[in-house]
Amino acid sequence: MSVAAANASASPRFILTLGCPDRRGIVARIAGFVADAGGWITEASYHSDPETGWFFTRQEVCASTLPFGIDELRTQFGAIAHEFGAQAEWRVHSTAERRKVVILVSREAHCLYDLLGRVTSGELDVDVRAVIGNHAELATVTRAHGIPFHHIEFPKGIDPEGKQAAFAQIRQIVDVHEPDAIVLARFMQVLPHELCAAWAGRALNIHHSFLPSFVGARPYHQAHTRGVKLIGATCHYVTAELDAGPIVEQDVIRVSHTDSVSDMVRKGRDIEKVVLARGLRWHLEDRVLVHGNRTVVF
Amino acid sequence: MSVAAANASASPRFILTLGCPDRRGIVARIAGFVADAGGWITEASYHSDPETGWFFTRQEVCASTLPFGIDELRTQFGAIAHEFGAQAEWRVHSTAERRKVVILVSREAHCLYDLLGRVTSGELDVDVRAVIGNHAELATVTRAHGIPFHHIEFPKGIDPEGKQAAFAQIRQIVDVHEPDAIVLARFMQVLPHELCAAWAGRALNIHHSFLPSFVGARPYHQAHTRGVKLIGATCHYVTAELDAGPIVEQDVIRVSHTDSVSDMVRKGRDIEKVVLARGLRWHLEDRVLVHGNRTVVF
Amino acid sequence: MSVAAANASASPRFILTLGCPDRRGIVARIAGFVADAGGWITEASYHSDPETGWFFTRQEVCASTLPFGIDELRTQFGAIAHEFGAQAEWRVHSTAERRKVVILVSREAHCLYDLLGRVTSGELDVDVRAVIGNHAELATVTRAHGIPFHHIEFPKGIDPEGKQAAFAQIRQIVDVHEPDAIVLARFMQVLPHELCAAWAGRALNIHHSFLPSFVGARPYHQAHTRGVKLIGATCHYVTAELDAGPIVEQDVIRVSHTDSVSDMVRKGRDIEKVVLARGLRWHLEDRVLVHGNRTVVF
Amino acid sequence: MSVAAANASASPRFILTLGCPDRRGIVARIAGFVADAGGWITEASYHSDPETGWFFTRQEVCASTLPFGIDELRTQFGAIAHEFGAQAEWRVHSTAERRKVVILVSREAHCLYDLLGRVTSGELDVDVRAVIGNHAELATVTRAHGIPFHHIEFPKGIDPEGKQAAFAQIRQIVDVHEPDAIVLARFMQVLPHELCAAWAGRALNIHHSFLPSFVGARPYHQAHTRGVKLIGATCHYVTAELDAGPIVEQDVIRVSHTDSVSDMVRKGRDIEKVVLARGLRWHLEDRVLVHGNRTVVF
Fold first, then answer.
1. Superfamily for B100-297?
2. What is the ipTM of this complex?
3. Which of D113, D123, D266 lies nearest to residue C117, judging by beta carbons?
4. pLDDT at B3 > cutoff 50
């Protein structure tokens, strides 16, 4: 069941996630801990990766069945996580806490429009705190949804200091919200390394190609030149290396010789929208566990 | 190339379509007619159906390369069509004439929202003349896009006369615009036979199943009960028999045992949106030729 | 990891499956049982269905990490299953026991050919004990693979007794092998009720449509007449009602107005083959748990 | 309709293809030529590429409706092709001439097995003249189908001269058949430049990735390391640059974190088989027109 559905019901869930070196008894230990406390597990996922020797789990527990709140749960589950050698790779969240999102855009409307539609209909039950654009085009649609829009102008020519200043402004606006996700919804600027580091594991990008094909600029032009028969889109976490972060979701659509670059751009938009929306949903539902440069999506 | 792209360019196209009994020389006759007039064909599609013995064609001709306008073209091409025994199955349109659309909705926002997004961005270059709802929920989003919204209330209980009156009102609003397409964007009322007849070949419905599976009400519930592994959506022309009209486009998405009915509803929406948008685009670009209960989509 | 891969490695697995009424502590009880015995779980799947209140699980345990063999495991796990009210819905298998399969065919070669190819290459590590055909066409290819072929002729006209006798012969040949799966690989005869009952949960059929569309005979003809834009195939367990058993797997492929019925037949074959192969693999790996008329596929 | 279906019917077709600089009147000229001769066009495809200014067409004409045979047709159509500036980019074939194919393999059986199954069932109505392997493993299955198998051993270490000699032997075996297609069905050796040149436009390779991702060796390992969510296969013409020739067909299949490299290899095989079979069919039906490094697939 989705976070939205869980929120809609009278019964919030606690979501526990953990990644640690694999060994015997982890499932028993975690499930035993929840059961001993009287907790009802409504969804449980496990994965053992024989190549890396790593273990991953995600559990949804009916919050009302536990005799304690999230703070105590965090303390107790954290102790277990440390037992198994998980340093930072564990989390406890409540579906009752509404997730906060900041969206970065440029001129292209379709991903923003799609996300706002999902938020408005309640399908995506999140709190969009701000939209930041390096162009002003999307201010109107954003504000029509009651969401603040910040226009941060970027320098036109090569101006590293101007760019740095623009990113400093963006960071200030973003960080005050402590967002659970920073969404690059066809934001066409490359994040500086310090922002990649500061937002590690929270910044999601949609790239308009089936990565690792067609990294960088104008992927539909590259795809057209290469004569591929399918085009795609990739939702991935932003890391310092361009378009090389852990992949959360991908999808493709068929094209043919009749499709010009602009037809590809149009068809690709429909893929970009759903791939980004799925990736964001899974991220906010704590379904995505990152290990090295790969993801487990429960 | 799409209508939008053609419009965007300085060069409108004439679109000719024809369906008639197959025989030798039709391609030569039509292509010869265009060539003799000096016309440049930018896209040409032909299909011979050996089972029905029917021939179909669609041609895009660069308007500026012809020495006459659309009225003369209609006269001359109509004469050729009659030569080949095409009664009503031929059309001539100019991409310079902006297509008119009326949208019928109920409470579900996603298809309307998606269409308005495409219109706003210019991807779908059409004139949405009105949105008509049997509920008032979608009035705000419609009017925010500068489009008139008409709320036509339907009777609650069984009240055939009340229903008839409501449909009479709808018809009045629709017909004044002489729309090229009447889009049932998750409009949950069954059109009366006289409207099916009046709008034949212009009324497009999106049904939230992979037809002919799960005709009628609550298809996602039916799909869940049957335990299917893929769910779908179907865009079809409205005819007197419920959900049985000529199919324009279909698509599917994978589901599993982890998907509740509400998960299916959510996943299905993404398919409904794109299937309807594709079907509408093809209809408005005169790519859909209907013969019997089947379609040729060029 | 697949059964084949597990077999290939030096380390067989025990596979435990269970379906029972959902309640607190089941995961903890099962995982605790395995952990207390020193077992290493290499794959664990759980599913709670809120609508039916049913709980499902499948576990793979490294056999060499348990201090006892499959008989003792069966005794102990059976006791736990009974604790939780699972009557017949639990199983324990070892990947070291090679699965036995009997295949029923008619004239169409593609599914049989595909399965034999997978068996020959070792991809599908099963013991095909016999192929039974109501026609003799596929005898040669079967025997070329070193597998016995039985030709059981069916009466031409309406001859219920002759048919019954033919099915009695088939049953005799099948039952002596105590197969884990009876595969109807485009076997065009409807199984009598007593065979459906005798082989319940073991007889897999491939139907050449996207069920529940186009039940029964000549589904591609039905699909062509309806003018669908996608055709499909469905692998399902055989039950007394024709083409209505629990669905294991489905897939689709796009068709268009250019596809004749024979084109659909040809395209459909590629879907039938992979859908049947996937369904059979999952069945033999104990990944499919049936509850009512629906399946959980872990 | 497919070549097989056309062959099966009493009525062979002539297939005309042409690529030339676009200009007015080409359709009229070709269709007029066929019509004036009394020919019945059963399938006609046209494509104008605005970016390259190139025009492409493919026509199927019912052979019995023309008053002359293929030689005269070739003469007359060749004259027209030259009128429009097509140097080498035109062809005339009869579906009555059975196409000749040579297949190159290594150890992997699945693509060969799949092709032989299609040939045996008559789905692919071609004449497989020879199978050549740099290993002997696939000799038995090849010969069981009545097809000669040639084992050409390649040197183990770095031995350019030995390799050259092996390829010279292969070339000799291939060229004597004047095949319409040389199929590299998971042949793991890189063709030398002189063979790429000699077989230009006739040598089809199946690469086990979604090109241009994962060029070269071990693409599934590369895909696993990158953590992609879909894997694919690409059928392309062989050119001097490795895995960079014109793409004929591609397809993908979904993978997840649960798939090991060997699972990807297994899932990928099903995609490789159908992508190669589709590419080969289209090539042999003269549906693929190459221009620069891109293909038009009618």
1. Formyl transferase, N-terminal domain (3.40.50.170)
2. 0.93
3. D113
4. no
Query: Looking up tokens 């049997």, which residue turns up?
Result: B134
pTM for the whole structure: 0.95
Backbone angles phi, psi at A168, to 5 degrees: -65, -40
Within an 8 Å CB–CB cutoff, is residue B120 touching chain A?
A: yes
pLDDT score, position B87: 80
What residues form DSSP beta bridges with D130?
D102
Task: With CA atoms as reference, report the closest residue to C133 among C169, C176, C175, C181.
Answer: C169
**Fold classification of B3-94 (topology level):** Alpha-Beta Plaits (3.30.70)
The DSSP-derived string for B113-181 is HHHHHHHHTTSS-EEEEEEEESSSTTHHHHHHTT--EEE-PPPSSS-HHHHHHHHHHHHHHHHTT--SE
Of D25, D35, D43, the CB nearest to B25: D35
- How far off is chain D from B184, nearest CA to CA, in Å? 33
**What is the residue-averaged pLDDT of chain B?**
94
Say whether D260 and A230 touch across the interface (CB within 8 A).
no
Residue B127: active-site member: no
Interatomic CA distance for residues A285 and A282, integer angstroms: 5
**C-alpha span between A224 and A263 (Å, rounded):** 10
Question: Where residue B88 falls among pLDDT bands split at 50, 70, 90?
Answer: confident
Inter-chain contact B260–C50, Cβ cutoff 8 Å?
A: yes
Amino acid sitting at position D276: L
Matching residue, tokens 């005169």? B286
Distance (Å, rounded) from C-alpha A275 to C-alpha A289?
A: 17
Boundaries of every domain in chain B: 3-94, 100-297
C8, pLDDT greater than 60 = no
Choosing from C125, C243, C259, C286, the catalytic residue is C243
Q: Is B251 on the interface with A (CB under 8 A)?
A: no
3-state secondary structure chain A: CCHHHHHHCCCCEEEEEEEEECCCCHHHHHHHHHHHCCCCEEEEEEEEECCCCEEEEEEEEEHHHCCCCHHHHHHHHHHHHHHCCCCCCEEEEECCCCEEEEEEECCCCHHHHHHHHHHHCCCCCEEEEEEEECCCCCHHHHHHCCCCEEECCCCCCCCHHHHHHHHHHHHHHHHCCCCCEEEECCCCCCCCHHHHHHCCCCEEEEECCCCCCCCCCCHHHHHHHHCCCEEEEEEEECCCCCCCCCEEEEEEEECCCCCCHHHHHHHHHHHHHHHHHHHHHHHHCCCEEEECCEEEEC
Contact yes or no for A176/A148 (Cβ under 8 A): no
Question: Yes or no: is domain D99-297 CATH 3.40.50.170?
Answer: yes
Q: How high is the pLDDT of residue C1?
A: 37
